[in-house]
Amino acid sequence: MNLIILKLAIKNLFGRDKTSLLSILGLAIALVSTFYIYSYVSFELSYDSQHKKAKRIYRISGDIIAAENTATHAVLGPLLSPELKNHFAVVEAFTRLIPIRQQTVLEYHNQQFIVEEAYSADPDVFNIFSLEFIYGSNDNIFNNPDEIVINESLSKKIFDDVNPIGESLIKDGQLLKIAGVVKDSPENSHHKLNVLFSIGNRWSKLENLSPVQISEGYWMPSAYHFILLKPNTSIISITDNFDSFYKKYMAEFGNAINAKFKPVAVSLKELHFSRHMDYDLQKGNKTYIYLLIMIGLFILSVAIINYANLLFTQNIIQSKKIGIKKILGASHFTLYKQFTANSFFFIFTSFVLAYLIYFFSLSALISVTNIDKTVFHILKIFKLSAVLLVALVLITSSISFVNQMGKEGIKLLHPFSLKVLGPTNYRFGISSTVIQYTLSSILIISMIIITRQINFLLQSDMGFNKENILIIDLNNLAGTGKNINPFLNEIQRNPQIKNVALSTNIPGNIMGTSHFQIQRNGETVTKIVKTMGVDYQYIPTLDLHLKEGRNFAKTFKDSSFNSIIINEAFIDFCGFNGDMIGQKLAGDSKVIGVLKNARFNSLHNPAEPMVLYLGNNKMKYLNIKLESSDLKNAVQSIEKTWNNIYPEVLFDTQFLDNRIALLYDKDQQINTLIKLFTFISLLISIMGLVNLSTILTKSKTKEIGIRKANGANTLGILLLLNTKFIKWVAFAFILAIPAAYFIMNNWLHGFANKINLSWWIFGLAGVLVFGIALLTVNLNSWNAARRNPVEALRYE
Whole-structure pTM over 0.70, yes or no? Predict the structure, then answer.
């Protein structure tokens, strides 16, 4: 009996018409989309889970609370975590991660190697984080200040497969001995520990410092602090009892700047999705995760609905066979086994096709979206597939079984007709179409809004011209002790260069902060603002516009913080009114200019108050404004000049517009995925509409023949077949509008700068939905409308 059931299931699978093939293809595409989304979402949610002690690891950051504003600093003073361990018994170990610039250059035998994310760290970094040693071990490591630990990728790049323990690398002229090689940090790590330097005994000699200076050592933004709690202890033992620590170690400096401090403890596993902090690395966005999960469920639901429609159709077609089996005494269990076998082979075939599409399309998806390939794990896909296969087979086989269970065998012996199984099946077809197009319409509206928002972020005026600005990182030069002036003198003679300027930072990077004290109603108020050092040419180089006042100038003998230029956000932030020029801040700092609409941070957040001051000779970045005619040759010419003057220093550049675009890299990535999945959802909905229109067209075959025999034309037949579909699609779109508005309005709340939800967005989505639906139905109905009425009347 079981062998017969299997043979019938295989025969049913291969003996079906084009509607079955479309349903198989639709389900396969939906499964591929589910694989992609599941891989991406599980990757994002698994950040830092590779560390065995992750549940006990916390990063300690802090709210710097002034009278009228609060700044959250991810990095704090270097004295904080060592004293936390001494003061709180729940702390088992600590480590500081002190970032060594955004990029670090290491030298070996006159070859230079760029490293992203390098940190100085305490010895317990190897006890707190699960770093797997390939060469060396964590025993007695970092006892000496001249030790370095590198990752596997860098080791292979420099030493191939040779053990490099004991070899030396040069950083900023200092010789460092390799004490270990660890495996690369996974991509889903908030802090990637690619290269670690020993902190040594820095900040251990405090006897020459004043009490205020020592207290400042707990505040000043310089290190990420991680603590490992003892087992069975809670972080609230620190956060709820921090007052005594603050009064003993931090209050001196807090009183000096008229601010208070509140610790912000974030679990390592929650760090990737924690709130925005100054000096922090780029984080994830849970809203995008929820959005992708919703899209995945939408797509899978649409495909399952298509298959459910197919099941109802197949039940109609096979009703005679089922009726005969019932008359001959087939039990409910036997019928259920047959339905289960049919569903299993159908869904299993979809899975096989899905795997083929997945493997062949994966490289294309990675190249289009720039998603790292480590996101996709085949083992995870197989585990998900097993769960989905069982669930889908049980659900779909139950649909067929329940649909047939209450019907007597004799009533199933009628010829093929939609009336065989009653009006329920017809209503289900209508309902499924409405649901499919409601979901697809929501996705289309969302796609248009998200695309417009991302474009708005990329194209918005930040108050300066970011085009054709070449940035040269001077951190590599600083370690050599050489001066930038010879290079500046040489490139300023280059006709391809319009202007050059120096700065301590660049827009889009982590900015410095400073606190100002101002008088408000006879009271001293502390304000915490962003700061950046620039030279005399910075404002004209970036085409920054002054709303009032002047630029820095040698003729006015401007120097350091004595003369400052602020942006408009600074004025709003401090609550000033009237003319700002000449205003004194923090004692001797005099405002000489106000920048119009200038902002240097991501548009995800409100414009940050900014102070530009005249920097010293230790600038970190060179900003070069290029002529737009031939950028490639201009960069090559600059590189040639650099190599002639500094042959041993790496030429490290980036364009400013590319740097700013990185602020929205995750947004663009998600936008690409949403576009792709919206198209897939629409494609599957079209397949479902083709199937349903095919069924309904067949049911009206004789009616069409009679109408044509009585003189009805092709247009009239098309109207007959299409009117109901248009009503269903219209109803679906009406349902989609409030749902899409609610979802997108909530999503846009996450942006400080955002587009308006204009009516035309919904109108454009409606045109797309109706246009696609009409085209789909008409292509399928055309043959039926033009069919010979004689053939139609012979049907059945």
Answer: yes
